[in-house]
Design goal:
mainly alpha
């Protein structure tokens, strides 16, 4: 459930944050929410995982013997051939 939050910040900081969010095709609210999720999850875990990475977890199912270094090397060879 979304709840409204009012913050008092320096006008220049707000403008910079809006440009930053716009450049990343997101809203200032989402940017702040992701940041707050990040810093509050760090208390629970020593490894910080961004909300974007969390949302992508489990999408790809790779074989147990998958060698990502080998695959990446082969990709680069094909790309620059």
């Amino acid at each position: 459930m979304d709840t409204k939050l009012t913050l008092k910040l320096d006008q220049e900081t707000i403008e910079k944050a809006k440009r930053f969010a716009r450049h990343r095709n997101t809203s200032l609210s989402m940017l702040i929410e992701n940041y707050l999720q990040l810093i509050t999850s760090q208390e629970e875990s020593t490894v910080s995982i961004t909300p974007l990475v969390k949302s992508l977890s489990g999408i790809i199912d790779l074989p147990d013997m998958y060698d990502h270094k080998k695959e990446y090397s082969e990709f680069l060879v094909r790309k620059y051939k």
